[in-house]
Write a structure and sequence with these properties.
- By secondary structure, this protein is an alpha+beta fold.
- The chain is built from 4 helices and 3 strands; from the N terminus they run βααββαα.
- The C terminus is likely disordered.
């Protein structure tokens, strides 16, 4: 299985490392830790980031994205 350190995932996904840390803190992007304490992400993180990016375009709050609930906002 492919794994990425935060800098590698940022480069691969085009999402800044600061945003990746924010997503981890918000519960959107889980990360394991290496024995040295570095964040380590699996291949599923790339797919998850694509989902988050797509879902953000629909307008839900990050909490709704985290919960897997994407509901259109009605005026």
């Amino acid at each position: 299985m492919t794994s990425y350190r935060i800098s590698q995932l940022a480069e691969r996904s085009g999402v800044p490392a600061t945003t990746l840390r924010f997503y981890e803190d918000a519960g959107l992007l889980p990360a394991d830790r290496s024995p040295a304490g570095y964040r380590v992400y699996g291949e599923d993180a790339v797919e998850r980031l694509a989902f988050i990016s797509s879902a953000k375009l629909l307008g839900p709050a990050l909490e709704e994205i985290r919960d897997g609930v994407v509901r259109p906002r009605l005026s």
